[in-house]
Design brief:
The chain is an alpha+beta fold and about 200 residues long. Helices cover about 20% and strands about 30% of the residues. Strands 2, 4, 7, 8, 9, 10, 11 and 13 form an 8-stranded antiparallel β-sheet that branches.
């Protein structure tokens, strides 16, 4: 009888250890709850204000609106038009203009909930590079050239030389201004499943 009890105890211990290992194994993906929009879901938002790196500072808040419905597996929905709050995580000026936006909360029918997401694209903005893996937005422009090259057009009598050089286009200067107008669309990816409250 003691041997049987010992054998059963070992079997239960082995089963418990196996379940614990699976729970801690990152390769075993957790199942998404029925009321959640899964991690990795991409969606569009629309800026409610202009974002200009020359005027922004770290920590500054901004707002966007959801531009398409977010629907969970059980049919819970955050409808298009709901507000999203965010803040500027970092901003760089000058020849290496960059902008990193973070999202904080999204409005639902039952109040605000946390939103963890990354900007992965800026559709329709041809002057902006595809954001890097961290979601940093940068202006798209040729690599930097000496300032002397930029002013050469104006010195040689080219009427457009001065204006274009200042904009960082004709002379090949790196674009030093990053501006997203009100109404611009951002493509966003959920970095954590979004639990939609039902009450």
């Amino acid at each position: 009888m003691n041997q049987f009890s010992s054998w059963m105890g070992m079997l239960c211990l082995t089963a418990a250890m196996s379940l614990l290992a699976q729970a801690n194994d990152p390769a075993v993906a957790p199942t998404t709850r029925p009321n959640a929009v899964p991690e990795g879901t991409t969606f569009l938002v629309r800026l409610e204000e202009k974002l200009d790196n020359a005027e922004l500072h770290r920590g500054q808040h901004f707002k966007v609106k959801l531009d398409e419905d977010l629907i969970s597996a059980n049919g819970n929905m955050i409808p298009r038009g709901k507000n999203i709050k965010g803040h500027v995580s970092s901003v760089e000026h000058g020849r290496h203009a960059r902008l990193l936006l973070s999202f904080d909360e999204i409005e639902t029918k039952h109040g605000w909930i946390a939103l963890i997401a990354t900007v992965i694209g800026v559709p329709g903005e041809h002057g902006v590079k595809v954001p890097n893996s961290e979601g940093e937005i940068e202006p798209k422009g040729p690599s930097a050239k000496p300032i002397e090259d930029a002013t050469a057009g104006a010195a040689s009598g080219d009427s457009d030389g001065g204006e274009l050089a200042g904009a960082g286009t004709k002379a090949g200067q790196r674009a030093d201004r990053l501006r997203l107008e009100k109404g611009a669309t951002l493509e966003v990816r959920l970095d954590r499943a979004l639990q939609i409250p039902s009450h």
